[in-house]
Hints:
The protein is mostly beta strands and 148 residues long. It has one helix at 29-41; strands at residues 51-55, 59-65, 74-79, 82-91, 100-109, 120-124, 127-133. It has a domain at 47-138: Immunoglobulin-like, CATH 2.60.40.
Amino acid sequence: MRIARYNYPSYSNFLVTPSLFGRSPWSGLESEIDRLFAATVGTQNNPLFPVDLYEDQSNLFVRAELPGVSRDDLQVEMVEGDLSISAVRKTPASGDQPEQSFSFSRSLSIPADVATDRVSAAYENGILTVTLPKREEAKAKKIAITVK
């Protein structure tokens, strides 16, 4: 995670109107905060969810926590090197509140060294794990060293 520091000039009198300086020392901060939240949370119509990416010697893994999502409301697709995960979380109707549904989606670029024909996904206890096997050519090979 990268933390950005804003070094605005310090003014001894904060009661002075910003128009004396041409602009407020805080201008831009609100738009930067909005941009940060839009990048991490997504838009209001399409919020993002966090994913964990890790690998071992023979596989890449994508793990997403999707509590409250049923298996039937989950969709995982590989299209031209992109992994797309879509989910719909439904809240049941209660009292005078009608049933509500919220949709989430995430798309990730997958490296070319993945065998896309062997991709698999498992969903258990609200955790989706997508296994992306590496091609044989991409796996690390041990090379013997000979003495001459």
